Amino acid sequence: MGVTVDRREGGDGQNYPRPGQDVVIHYTGHLQTPDGPVFDSSVRRKEPFRCTIGIGEVIKGWDEGVPQLSKGEKALLTCTPDYGYGPRGYPPLIPPNSTLVFEVELLDFQ
Q: SUPFAM superfamilies per the record (predicted)?
């Protein structure tokens, strides 16, 4: 259980965000598999998502997965239900106990 990071395209390999830092990310979220239905996408909105990592502002899978990415890196984050929205889900977009797969690109952080 947890989050799995599958690196797709390397970043700078030197600069990694730390808990408490603000990150700027492009993402596309899928249910169950990378080919599963899309439930949300900053790419489709053409506006990067901004959040603070490591403080519980986002799902646990992001809090633990995003700090493993270096600036500019692209990866798949696969989050088991306990690292996503768990037994409650996020109605109506995400059913209870869903595995979530995010295509992410860490654009920037500070």
A: FKBP-like
